Amino acid sequence: MVATMKKLIVLIALLLSACANQFHTESVYQSMGGYQKVEEVVNNYIVEIEKDHVIFEYFKESDVERFRAKLTEHICFHTGGPCEYTGDDMERVHDGMNMTESDFNRSVDLLINAMDQADIPHRTRNRVLAIFAPMRKEMIYRP
Length: 143
Ligand code: HEM
Prior knowledge:
By secondary structure, the chain is mostly helical. It has nine helices and no strands. It has helices at 2-22, 28-32, 35-51, 53-59, 64-78, 90-94, 101-117, 122-132, 136-139. The radius of gyration is 19 Å and the shape is elongated. The termini are far apart. The structure holds protoporphyrin IX containing FE. Protoporphyrin IX containing FE binds at residues 55, 58-59, 62-63, 66-67, 70-71, 74, 87-88, 93-94, 99, 103-104, 107, 132, 135, 139. The site of protoporphyrin IX containing FE has 21 residues, from helix 4, helix 5, helix 6 and helix 7.
């Protein structure tokens, strides 16, 4: 009887954890691996930007340490982490850069590289991209 109850409890626990996975009760931030992983992704992303002559052109006058700090907060906050975003408004920051759609896509590729290098699982990576993709309309230049 006790053995059967134990088996039942284990089965229920397994079912609950399967459901939790299915419905993403874990935040994207948690699936990424928390703050350290967000920092790792941002650091990798900055190296990727520095290596890419097209995207680096946008950043050549920027304060890289401010960008590192604000982007880390931004990703942490938007993926459900315990951070506050203290940077500027996205539209205001990117306004005037005359960013093209193809450059936006190019920088998404750099972010994908950054997440791959940090061993972020593909499913989590796609969840991160799904959060940031809708922001493109605030950034791309429309004459
Ligand atoms: C969804 C996509 C993006 C997000 C979430 C994002 C986020 C951010 C954040 C949080 C900052 C810091 C704001 C601050 O300093 O207060 C920033 C700055 C910046 N972003 Fe983006 N960004 C995105 C796409 C892009 C793209 C595609 C480019 C260019 C190709 C770009 C170029 C820049 C530059 C140059 C700065 C620094 C501005 C400065 O020095 O004042 N961003 N971005």
